[in-house]
Specification:
Layout: H1 7-12, H2 32-55, H3 62-76, H4 79-97, H5 107-129, H6 142-159, H7 165-173, H8 207-230, H9 236-258, H10 263-279, H11 291-310
Helix pairs in contact: 3-8, 3-9, 6-7, 8-9, 9-10, 10-11
């Protein structure tokens, strides 16, 4: 009965059995994350729909939802370029320095690995919250990017006030409120207090632009999934170009959400890039019948959107 449920759905809930998810070679391992991505997006849409029908309001603002999903997409893009290097390095170390070889088809090996990897991720994640240095692949939302830049500029300036080289390094490795003489995580009593009355950032933008952003996000999500499915059949140059297009799209949509003054020009540029890539067959339409509308429709829709945006109340 369990095997009748698609692998993409079951991988979301850790419902893959040891027998079906144990492999002798690296090449045999499926792309579980990318199999699960469409179902993940579908469940999010279902949650939004149920919340809308139940309360009459969106449970998650579109701006927050798009930004969070965009960050998830961006966090996986580096694997298009470095995953093979990562696996090669792992195999190299294992071939030369492993202490014991566990049977790959043993359920005990599967459970030991499952718990070990999960524990490793836990400690890496916990460590990242205790330091000023946290891994940012790319922050898609404009406001978060600007905040990050200003924050690290602040850390850099603060590190320069210390004479000891060790303290300069610890400024980035220890907690945000750390100063010499304080515990590793710093003194939290001096931090701003959270009162619960803080107003969440929720920009006001027209319904048309919200629909426009959602539709184009879904299109780039399809491009993202397709790129992972075909990465072994295209050149590295093509992969780099498509990564650039995805980043450009997510950045442009972020500009629209934040209503940046340069959003219109950036989006027009993105539409031109999208049409060019489509002409070369790198961007696929969801349906063949949408090929022509997509080529010119994006620019026309954005022009209408700009009119609505300019004349919004």
């Amino acid at each position: 009965m369990l095997s009748s449920v698609p692998t993409g759905i079951r991988s979301l809930f850790f419902m893959l059995t040891p027998n079906e998810s144990s492999f002798k070679t690296v090449e045999e391992v499926p792309e579980y994350v990318h199999q699960a991505t469409p179902y993940f997006a579908g469940l999010i849409l279902l949650e939004v729909l149920v919340g809308l029908l139940k309360s009459g309001e969106l449970v998650v603002p579109i701006s927050d939802g798009i930004t969070s999903l965009s960050m998830g997409i961006v966090s996986k893009l580096p694997f298009l370029l470095i995953k093979s290097l990562e696996l090669t390095a792992y195999v190299f170390v294992w071939d030369r320095y492993h202490l014991v070889e566990l049977p790959w088809d043993s359920a005990w090996t599967w459970w030991f690995t499952f718990l070990g990897v999960d524990l490793g991720y836990y400690w890496v994640h916990r460590f990242s919250h205790g330091t000023n240095y946290t891994h940012y692949s790319i922050i898609v939302s404009t406001r978060e990017l600007i905040t990050s830049i200003h924050y690290y500029r602040h850390l850099w300036k603060r590190s320069r006030t210390y004479k000891a080289f060790g303290n300069k390094i610890l400024t980035f490795l220890n907690g945000p409120s750390w100063t010499p003489g304080k515990p590793r995580l710093g003194d939290h009593t001096a931090n701003p207090k959270v009162t619960g009355k803080e107003v969440a950032y929720n920009p006001s933008w027209s319904l048309f632009l919200q629909v426009y952003v959602v539709l184009h996000f879904l299109l780039v999500l399809g491009t993202y999934v397709h790129l992972f499915e075909t990465k072994m059949m295209v050149s590295q140059l093509t992969v780099l170009g498509m990564i650039g297009y995805i980043l450009l799209t997510l950045t442009s949509l972020g500009f629209i959400i934040d209503q940046r003054p340069s959003a219109a020009m950036l989006e027009m540029l993105r539409c031109v890039v999208m049409m060019t890539l489509q002409n070369f067959g790198h961007v696929k339409s969801p349906l063949p019948s949408l090929t022509v509308p997509m080529e010119g429709g994006s620019t026309i829709l954005w022009s209408i959107g700009q009119h609505i945006w300019t004349h919004r109340s």
